[in-house]
Design brief:
Low-confidence stretches: 153-164
Strand content: under 5%
Distance between the termini: 15 Å
Largest sheet: none
Number of strands: 0
Radius of gyration: 19 Å
Oligomer: single chain
Helix content: over 70%
Structural class: mainly alpha
């Protein structure tokens, strides 16, 4: 029970990161630069946590040679996932940008567990796991899609006036992004297991992602220092900079849970927390978000997701 509660708390951190990062993007007028800021702050936080727990930030040559090469890909996959969402939102709109990656996360994590990819703990695809996943998906649809559909049925099917079927390519990219995220979760979990330190594994993941983002920003989106200083002086709010802390907590939590629960269970529990956190932010208008009261459909959706998770856990 402790791990389920912990996983939900981990999931709640993600919408706070997304909300603060969105405001930071508006402030500095660059999605890539905002992502870089989050990765840098997250890396600093996790390096401090790693040192505080008595671990060294160094990695021995013998260790590098003794582990598979894919174990270092977590940070790179994290950057790919972030950039994928940046591309998806203006083309699919908010609902599908949430929904498509979730589909990829759930099905990707089931495959990872069933075939023990990335040395993830084995969990076979059984009837009850499939039933649990179906309930989780129904809960997601009830929480995310149906409330928006009841408000404006035409906004559900795409961005502006684009049809659902007309965006198949971008929808597939969204599903692939979700699979990439599931792989990142599994890889970071295995790195935490072999290092015996989820904090160090998370630090390595964000550090490698930071290096990649630095290169990308330098090549494609170099900031103008004068414009950046002007916008920060005009629009800056202290909580814009804490998104990286939430991101660090999210990566650390996943790295901690995967060796214990497996990728599929971890992804499902974290999704409950993710959607619950989003609803709380909307209900109370936290971190500058416009208030949007929770409705009965969304509460029912969360309860259905929790039921699905207990079925996956029990069977």
């Amino acid at each position: 029970m402790f791990f389920i509660i912990f996983g939900i708390i981990v999931g709640i951190t993600l919408p706070f990161q997304i909300a603060t990062n969105s405001k930071l993007q508006q402030t500095i007028a660059s999605s890539l630069q905002a992502c870089l800021v989050n990765f840098i702050i997250g890396t600093i936080v996790l390096s401090i946590l790693t040192l505080f727990t008595g671990q060294s930030l160094e990695i021995s040559t013998n260790f590098i040679q003794s582990v598979p090469s894919w174990i270092w890909l977590g940070g790179i996959l994290g950057v790919i996932y972030q950039m994928g969402n940046i591309l998806l939102f203006p083309r699919l709109g908010g609902v599908q940008t949430v929904l498509m990656p979730i589909l990829g996360q759930i099905f990707g994590s089931l495959i990872i567990d069933n075939f023990r990819l990335f040395d993830s703990p084995f969990h076979a695809i059984t009837f009850f796991r499939i039933l649990g996943v179906i309930l989780v998906l129904l809960g997601i649809l009830t929480t995310v899609v149906l409330p928006k559909y009841s408000i404006n049925r035409y906004r559900l099917i795409g961005f502006k006036n684009k049809s659902f079927s007309g965006n198949i390519g971008w929808q597939l990219l969204g599903i692939v992004c979700g699979i990439v995220n599931a792989c990142q979760v599994a890889i970071n979990g295995d790195l935490g297991r072999v290092l015996n330190s989820p904090s160090k594994a998370s630090y390595i993941s964000l550090f490698t992602g930071t290096i990649l983002l630095l290169v990308i920003v330098y090549l494609f989106d170099r900031p103008s220092i004068k414009k950046l200083e002007y916008r920060l002086n005009k629009y800056n709010t202290w909580w814009l900079w804490i998104g990286g802390i939430f991101g660090a907590a999210f990566v650390f939590g996943n790295s901690f849970l995967v060796p214990i629960l497996g990728t599929g269970m971890t992804v499902s529990i974290v999704l409950v927390g993710q959607l619950s956190g989003s609803l709380l932010i909307d209900e109370f208008g936290w971190v500058g978000v416009k208030k949007n009261p929770i409705n009965l459909l969304q509460i029912i959706g969360i309860l259905v997701m929790i039921l699905g998770i207990f079925i996956i856990k029990l069977f």
